[in-house]
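Example protein as discussed:

>
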Amino acid sequence: MSTVSGTTDLEPAVTDEGRETADPLEDIARKLLIEIGEDPDRDGLKETPARFARWWREFSSYEAGNVDTMFPLRTQGQIVLIQDIKVWSLCEHHLLPFSCSVTIAYRPHGDVLGLSKFARITQRHAHRLQVQERLVRDIADEITKVTGSSDVAVIATGEHLCMSMRGIRTPAAMTSSVFSGIFEEYGPARQELVATVFQSRK
């Protein structure tokens, strides 16, 4: 499986004449349809393997663009909070989608990170096979790296189709979090963050 910026042996091949052959993912989709008792050549399914292949390529090749644009602004200990970044990812255990609402907080140690960069970073890590616990850690680690701040918190609440569509088949919201620096202790910064996040969800 490729990473966000990597390539795989499953990418479409190119002939000596420069023509692109069918994406190998299309063959995988056709085999899947046959295995579940469908006819991939019937009306309604003829283009499904190609659509399947295009979607997987788009999902796994997501490019976040520039994520480290900083602006000179001295905040003097101010906490910056970005709420309700909506993302979709794929559970690596069942290849089923899960959706998350992500909140990021950090205390700048100098310049501040451009607002859109938080969403770009979040999307970058969501566009790969994930588990929610690792997703929040990946986001927190990159925010720390890009901003140079050790005071970072990430909270995500998600619904997982691998639970609501299979197994127990019960919808539920899962919340996972990462706290570092001033947010790690049960002090004023963490209390303010948690109160703000959960108050907004009422």
The beta strands are 70-71, 80-91, 97-106, 112-113, 129-130, 152-160, 174-179. Residues 132-147 form the longest helix (16 residues). The radius of gyration is 21 Å.
